[in-house]
Amino acid sequence: MSTASAEHSALVSIPHLLARNMAQLPDKAAYREKEFGIWQSWTWSQSADEIRAIALGFLEIGVNKGDFIAVIGRNRPAMYWSMVAAQMVGAVPVPLYQDAVAEEMAYVLEHCGARFVVVGDQEQVDKVIEVQETVHGIEHIVYHDRRGMRKYDHTQMNALDDVQATGRAAHERFEAELEARWRALTYDDICVMLYTSGTTGRPKGVVLSNRNIIETSKNSSEFDHLRVDDEILAYLPMAWVGDFIFSIGQAYWNGFCVNCPESQDTMMTDLREIGPTYYFAPPRVFETQLTNVMIRMEDAGRLKKWLFDRFMAVAKRVGPAVLDGKSVSGMDRFKYWLGDLLVYGPLKNTLGFSRVRVGYTAGEAIGPEIFDFYRSLGINLKQLYGQTEASVFITQQKDNEVRPDTVGTQTPGVELRIAENGEVFYRSPGVFVEYFKNPESTASTKDADGWVATGDAGFIEEATGHLRIIDRAKDVGKMADGRLFAPKYVENKLKFFPNILEAVVFGNNRDYCTAFINIDLTAVGNWAERNNIAYASYQELAGHPRVLEIIQGHVEAVNESVAEDEMLSGCQIHRFLVLHKELDADDGELTRTRKVRRRIIEEKFDDLITALYDGSQTVSTVTEVTYEDGRKGSIKATLELRDVKTISAPSQMAAE
């Protein structure tokens, strides 16, 4: 066996990768965290010492092999260390969404049977204490932030620092046991359990093995030539599979540095200070950043606005070609260089993207216009397609083969096939082991040969091998006249406009499409201030006649674009309304990863959908809402419904 293959065969778990990094990269920065405005760093050697102390402390408080340890909190080195420490003692980390309400946490904690919970701060402690009224398996809570915790009953609770101190003090008693446990880990042992977002029902516990995580991390890293000197910003929910792969799987495989922002509020500032080379964000983040750019440009002076508009027109025309190294005329190349000096470079620096070498978006489809905007600036933004059940990666876009309408080709090691009904299936080393305590769902999702049903409809282009995703298979349907109905395609076009935060399109088995729209309070509020329009609430602004006129203009512009696609031209929107409240995960309308729960929305707002199709001009409604403190309430509203101009499809015009 060669040295390289021998080394690889020994890297069968995250703790094994940690040991390699400690030996080969002892002084290389592994983690950074900003606290009180100051960045603190830990090398791989220092991180290994912190993780080992937590693991010894876990042994001291009685963690057994096979136990499940829930981890709840924002992205902090200590939270990541706790997950790796759990693996070292043979336990299974189960990260939860920190913004989940107690009821959602209760389900996951009960379902996985967690005996131990590691939390970030007092807020999470309070949630866990609340769920202990119904979840009785929790034996010990470990918290990281001491603030506010002095007067709590500590008989079954400890600060993480104290757990580490106890572990260090007891190292002679537990050293041999810890060494035996992590060295005994195999490729097929469980690495992590992550819960799905639950768009159609209860979240499912996805069991991922060391093989799943490490093979996927290795293959995807080689695909994009990730390096030891790369930098990432860890700001996405730790309960999301993407964060686990980027901040643990790929980080430990490549040995690069994971940077944790001070808070969600300082994320953009911290992003600029770090200047990551490897960056991932879901479409909503890119949409929000673009909205903020457009707002600032509306407030800019005349010269600045003129420069922005002029050079962005150049970027839109030749930017992607320059990025891909394609042929561009000398004059256009000069204009682009000048634009980079005056506009694109400063804008990328403001966004924190100056050093991005590899950027990705996924989670749901991104609007082509939004995608092209970032690439026109010279940012190597690409799309990947993945799932929790695949350990993220199914397809990725190769450099210089990037298009807004596909999600690329198979990640190395992945096989694809399209079923007769158009559903996408895949098989890979990253395919999950099982759904925890759910053999029926496991069997219906993964067959005996390892092929997994994605639930998405799509096709593979014969000429390029690129995969195109149309929509969720369950959401793709037919209009009453037989034309294709793909709501996400239209929704993404709508969300390109900074004034539109969210959209939900209806039309399956109906004569025409209609839509709910959420305005973006930041963008529309900024417009209202510039135009001296007073408003007291989201509801009041959303129903303002001039706001409705603006949104109608956006919808009609989207209809013109949709009409150009013969296959999907039937998805033009005929009527719409602007909702009186923002769709909210706390109200069950969105998942914690901000995906629309269509069935719940259809049931909850059935009266509004009925009004869109019965010709009503207004509709009065009462909607239950959940406040930040968990209390329930209701809001009343009378909404205006608007008719929208539609465009004849090219084939129809030709026939006429």
Q: Indicate the percent of residues in helices.
A: 40-55%
How does the helix and strand content classify structurally?
Answer: alpha/beta
Major β-sheet strand ordering: 4-3-5-6-7
> Quick one: CATH superfamily of the largest domain?
ANL, C-terminal domain
Q: Regarding CATH, which class of the largest domain?
A: Alpha Beta
Nearest-angstrom radius of gyration? 26 Å
Low-confidence stretches: 1-7
Per the principal axes of the C-alpha atoms, what is the gross shape?
globular
Write a compact overview of the structure shown.
With 656 residues, this protein is an alpha/beta fold.
Task: Give a topology summary.
Elements: H1 3-10, H2 14-24, E1 29-35, E2 38-43, H3 44-60, E3 68-72, H4 77-88, E4 92-96, H5 102-112, E5 116-119, H6 122-131, E6 140-143, E7 157-159, H7 160-169, H8 171-183, E8 190-195, E9 205-209, H9 210-223, E10 231-233, H10 241-254, E11 257-260, H11 267-274, E12 278-280, H12 283-299, H13 302-323, H14 330-351, E13 358-361, H15 368-376, E14 381-387, E15 392-396, E16 409-410, E17 415-418, E18 423-427, E19 434-435, H16 439-445, E20 452-460, E21 467-472, E22 477-478, E23 484-485, H17 487-494, E24 500-506, E25 513-519, H18 521-530, H19 538-542, H20 545-563, E26 573-578, H21 598-604, H22 606-613, E27 618-626, E28 632-640, E29 642-643, H23 650-655
Parallel strand pairs: 1-11, 3-4, 3-5, 5-6, 6-7, 10-11, 12-13, 13-14, 25-26
Antiparallel strand pairs: 1-2, 8-9, 9-19, 14-15, 15-16, 17-18, 18-20, 20-21, 22-23, 24-25, 26-29, 27-28
